[in-house]
Design brief:
By secondary structure, the protein is mainly beta. It is built from 2 helices and 37 strands. Helix content is about 5%, strand content about 35%. The N terminus is likely disordered.
């Protein structure tokens, strides 16, 4: 129902006059949906600017948002009530929220429980034209997404200006977030993913798929759907894969960013301030394309993979690459390396600086490099373990002299430099990000700390 409220005759006249002057404008409505009511019937009624509030309780519906377009000044809102717990629960083997040819939606403040029966909890899906169907300007906030039989979130439709913030993805049988499509089309563009937790996934925590040369609506030139592209911001998230829930070797985060040529070929993936608490059988970060990887903390990669692996994957080569002020700590001997860099393409900015790459055993590999193109800069890094010499300071110092608390236990681990650590004031200011992991300006001393 519409929110109650009275209005005087004079004010009504003003509203009517404004309504004539501003074609299409109408007072926004708020609808309230009880658990037994049909959510889709309310969605069908909604007009740009309207809000739909899911009332406390369990809602057993598969939501469909199709051909529902708002505007920059009139967003749709779908949210949970402030009065109690709201759960959207799976109803058969379907996608729980399916989105096509829609825009300007805020979806927030409730739980999505797949009950190990749904396909995807949230899915962007093309239904008419694989190259021109779309979703854009969607914000997903404060959602708990769990127990999906397939994916927690997938964007198998061209998607741009998508934000996912303050969400918890867990207990997902396949991929936590599957962004883009395996065929190299239906890309996700202008993607912000920040302050989320992703854990307990059978495969990747998140993968951003490779892109072919963009076609159709993804070029940003379709009349009425024009947009500029800038890339991806993946910032301040926590990632975890553990033996109890992992089904196969997969990275925590896979990013194959930007097509090799044409529209979007300069788009940049910024991977900043993330924490990886563990991966049982693969790389923490596996990435290619145009990358800025800064201020991340990675630990507990315990089998086979590297903390950060840069290299060719699925037709995508690493081009623009900045790896700055990261800390990778691997205490065991089964992982491959803290940092592995291969297949860099010449003619691009490439800087590896101020990274702390620390193995528990000094005979294990800390760094693995392929040949570096002319002009690549490698400087002011510290490695504990084997690896190249140029651009690295090798150390055999005890771990306790490097980090304040070099353990894996959450709540106990502290990878800030120990008092007197060789990491302090040992970096180069020329390449250090302006702020550190906690947002504090660098440098605090004479020079930036490493890591």
């Amino acid at each position: 129902m519409r929110r109650p409220g009275g209005i005087g005759s004079a004010a009504m006249a003003v509203v009517l006059i404004l309504g004539c002057a501003l074609a299409g404008s109408a007072p926004a409505a708020t609808f309230y949906c009880e658990p037994r009511q049909d959510v889709n019937a309310y969605i069908d009624q909604m007009q740009p600017g309207d809000t739909l509030v899911l009332q406390p309780g369990d809602h057993f519906w598969n939501l469909r948002i199709i051909d529902k377009n708002g505007s920059p000044d009139a967003w749709f809102t779908l949210r949970g009530s402030d009065a109690g717990r709201v759960r959207l629960r799976a109803y058969g083997f379907n996608n729980m929220i399916e989105i096509t040819n829609s825009s300007y939606w805020r979806i927030r403040d409730f739980e999505i429980d797949g009950q190990y029966g749904c396909s995807d909890c949230i899915k962007g899906k093309y239904i008419r034209d694989p190259y021109n169907d779309y979703m854009h300007h969607f914000v997903f906030e404060n959602l708990s997404i769990y127990k999906a039989l397939n994916n927690g979130f997938s964007s198998h439709v061209t998607a741009w200006d998508i934000t996912i913030r303050n969400c918890h993805f867990y207990d997902i049988k396949d991929v936590g977030l599957y962004m883009g499509n395996s065929n190299g089309y239906q890309p996700i563009l202008n993607f912000t993913f920040e302050r989320n937790i992703v854990e307990q996934c059978g495969n990747y925590n998140m993968e951003v798929k490779q892109q072919n040369t963009r076609i159709g609506v993804s070029r940003g030139e379709t009349p009425g759907l024009e947009f500029d592209t800038w890339g991806w911001l993946i910032k301040d998230n926590v990632w975890m894969r553990d033996a109890a829930t992992s089904d196969s070797p997969r990275p925590n985060l896979l990013v194959d960013a930007a097509p090799a040529s044409g529209v979007g070929s300069d788009d940049l993936a910024t991977i900043e301030g993330n924490v990886v608490l563990g991966n049982v059988d693969d790389n923490a970060f596996q990435m290619s394309g145009n990358l800025r990887i800064v201020n991340n903390t990675i630990l507990n990669v315990i089998s086979g993979g590297s903390g950060i692996r840069i290299g060719y994957h699925n037709g995508c080569y690493p081009r623009h690459v900045e790896i700055l002020n990261n800390t990778v700590f691997i205490d065991g001997s089964t992982a491959y390396a803290c940092l592995s860099v291969w297949n860099l393409q010449s003619g691009h900015t490439q800087v590896i600086a101020n990274n702390a790459l620390i193995r528990g055993n000094t005979w294990d590999q800390a760094v693995s490099f392929g040949s570096m193109p002319a002009g690549a800069v490698v400087t002011s890094n510290v490695r504990r373990g084997s690896g190249p010499g140029a651009g690295f300071v090798a150390t055999t110092a005890p771990l306790s002299e490097i980090f304040a608390s070099p353990v894996y236990t959450p709540g106990v681990v502290d990878l800030y430099p120990a008092a007197g650590s060789l990491l302090i004031d040992a970096g180069t200011n020329a390449y250090a990000p302006a702020r550190d992991f906690n947002g504090i300006n660098r440098p605090k001393g004479a020079a930036s700390d490493i890591g």
